[in-house]
Amino acid sequence: MSSKMPNFRMRYVLLALVPLAVAGCVSAEDQRAMDQEKCSSFGYRPGTDSFADCMMKQSVQRDEDEQRFEDRMERRDRERREARRRQDDVIDTRPSYDRDGNPNFDTQGNYQGCRGIGCEVDNPDDDN
Q1: Which of 11, 39, 52, 74 is most buried, by CB atoms within 10 Å?
Q2: Domain presence at residue 26
Q3: Strand partners for 103
Q4: Residue range(s) defining the domain that contains residue 48
Q5: What phi and psi, each to the nearest 5 degrees, are found at residue 103?
Q6: Which residues of 53-86 are buried (b: 16+ CB within 10 A; e: fewer)?
Q7: In the chain, how many domains are there?
Q8: pTM: predicted TM-score of the whole model, two decimal places
Q9: How many CA atoms are closer than 13 Å to the CA of 83, on its beta-carbon side?
Q10: Which residue has the higher pLDDT, 128 or 55?
Q11: DSSP 3-state percent helix, strand, coil across the chain (nearest 5)
Q12: Alpha-carbon gap, residue 104 to 82, rounded angstroms
């Protein structure tokens, strides 16, 4: 899984940076010119109400696209944090070992340590 993790992260970094790079490469004047060209290609003439409406719709659409992108990235971040939290909540079922390599607890949580006379550690399962 760790070998896939850098590729996974890189994919999301690229997804985040591409729109920012594209938006950063287009000045406000260039964006306006592209919007005007688009509205003109729809058949609207500059100076008319329908052309102004088209320009406003282009701006609103761009804002909505940005908001959807930000929402999507926020949702992915939240899902990753939740998955990480769930992973942290998982109990380690591997047995614990003492300094001599003897298991203290088995995978069900039962004490497996020293049980005889002369043991330095008392049995925590013992009610005495």
Answers
A1: 39
A2: no
A3: 97
A4: 33-78
A5: -70, 135
A6: ebbeebeeeeeeeeeeeeeeeeeeeeeeeeeeee
A7: 1
A8: 0.46
A9: 6
A10: 55
A11: 60, 5, 40
A12: 32
pLDDT of 5 over the 60 cut:
no
Query: What is the percentage of the chain residues whose pLDDT exceeds 90?
Result: 40
27 found inside a domain: no
Residue 105: phi and psi, rounded to 5, are -135, 145
CB 36 within 8 A of CB 46: yes
Return d(Cα 94, Cα 102) in angstroms, integer: 13
DSSP string, 4-65: THHHHHHHHHHHHHHHHHHHHHS-HHHHHHHHHHHHHHTTPPTTSHHHHHHHHHHHHHHHHH
In a domain, 58, yes or no: yes
Question: How far, in Å, CA of 6 to CA of 10, rounded?
Answer: 6
**Mean pLDDT of all residues in the chain?**
77
Residue 60 has pLDDT above 70, yes or no: yes
How sure is the predictor about 120, in pLDDT bands with cuts at 50, 70 and 90?
Answer: low
